[in-house]
Amino acid sequence: MRHVRCLRAAGTLALASASLFAVGAPTVAATVTAQPASLISRLASPTQPPTQAQCVARFTVPCYRPAQFQAAYNELPLFRRGITGKGETIVIVDSFGSPTIKKDLATFDAQFHMPNPPSFKIIQPAGKVPPFNPATMSGWAGETTLDVEWSHSMAPGANILLVETPVAETEGVAGFPQIVKAENFVINHRLGQVISQSFGATEQTFPSAQALLSLRSAYKNAVRHHVTVLASSGDNGATGASNVAGTLFFTHRAVGWPASDPLVTGVGGTQLRLAPGGRRTAPDRVWNDSFNRALNQVFFGNNGPNAFATGGGQSVIFNRPGYQARDGISGNRRGVPDIALSGACSGLVVTFQSFPGSPPGWFVVCGTSESSPLFAGIVALADQVAHHSLGLINPALYRLLAEHAPGLVDVTKGNNTVAFTQNGHLFTVPGFSAGPGYDLASGVGTINAALFVPELVRAAGR
Fold it and tell me: Which of 25, 127, 208, 246 has the fewest CB atoms nearer than 10 Å to its CB?
């Protein structure tokens, strides 16, 4: 499923009046089918990106620009050394893509004084994408916009390859065969070093474990070809979107795949609190806006809780991989996420979009659909330092955790418990709390890029 954009998608929450997506990426829509992680998106201004103060006044929460994240994640020392992702290619995979993404990225870059990517290509290796239909594709277009603009923000010297697929990914198997085919094409032709996926489907929505396991060929292929694969952990906290008729969410704990795959790096969401220059005014905490009454009123028109928080928990499909053996938390199951970056709706990011179906302009967006492309930019910086792609980085992340590497910044506050009303009943799904070391809400923590990038290169080279 996708995320929400005032729709719900797999990893992005774009605050736009029209849609919402769910598990890890785009906009929040009124339905839970065919969605990115969870993307909430909302129009902020038709002419100029909103300031942090304007977002607080209008949405009750701040919004951030690229320079603030570059400072907050301490990328500037790397940029000054020419480490910008130069020579590397970030692969963004999205259903349908956006018909205006190239000109939208150019507008975004010009506004924030960033260079255009050295190369920006779009391919459709799994079949031609149908003509753009705003009613069914605008959420994915919003997801694509977020993924491209913010991965580029974190690695402005990297190439961008947008891989569009012709079938929407939904809960369960739908859309994944085309995604797998497209990703195998990219991997086999060595078109990129890191793949970002801002989408996912709750594990329990697959008809069987084997139905899910049969879709893993691209991730196995990526390991063989030394390609890093990332996925948003989702935007529904400790639960996930349901494909059971008459329901939106499962009333028990659940995680989403592919973030739960041991061959994929699951990226969760944090809440950043930044001054206008990017300086932190408080430590990062686990993203959880489920109980943010003011935000829920502004975005959804109600004061009740909504299931909007970072995905995290234990897989029901995969056993604990060897690299998690010492985390002491995940038990005998694969734990999600592995790492976390910004995704909170209480700390929105700004995007520019002009595709049909919504007014052109500057939107504010949130969700773990944001987290994955942000981290893809960081991996591209590390690939440049290493002079080769790092491949599966999960073992390296847990080595760095065991070493107490200073580039990993522990997230010790917050949880991903969510509550929501469904069929007239209020449900609460108890989540997981952050604490010292690894946890099922923030993984190994977040990053200080200037320290983390060389540490990751060293740890991955063992």
Answer: 246
Q: How much is the CA Rg of the chain, to the nearest whole Å?
A: 19
Q: What is the CATH number of the domain that holds 444?
A: 3.40.50.200
Domain count, the chain: 1
Dump pLDDT digits (tens) for 82-141: 999 999 999 999 999 999 999 999 999 999 999 999 999 999 999 999 999 999 999 999
Residue 1 inside a domain? The answer is no
Asked whether the beta carbons of 367 and 232 are under 8 A apart, the reply is yes
For the residues of 301-366, what is the DSSP string, one character each? S-SS----B---EEEEEEEPPGGGTTSSSSTTEEEE-SEEEE--GGGEEEEEE--TTS-SEEEEEE
Q: Is 448 within the bounds of a domain?
A: yes
pLDDT value at 17 more than 70: no
> Is residue 267 in a domain?
yes
Round to whole Å and give the CA distance between 367 and 346: 10
Indicate whether 89 belongs to any domain: yes
Per-residue pLDDT, 329: 78
Q: For residue 207, what are the domain limits?
A: 6-460
Indicate if the pLDDT at residue 371 is higher than 80: yes
Length of the chain: 462
* Contact of 23 with 154, CB cutoff 8 Å: no
Position with higher pLDDT, 303 vs 62: 62
Asked whether 309 and 289 are in contact (CB, 8 A), the reply is yes
Please state, in angstroms and rounded to a whole number, the distance separating the CA atoms of residues 436 and 110: 41
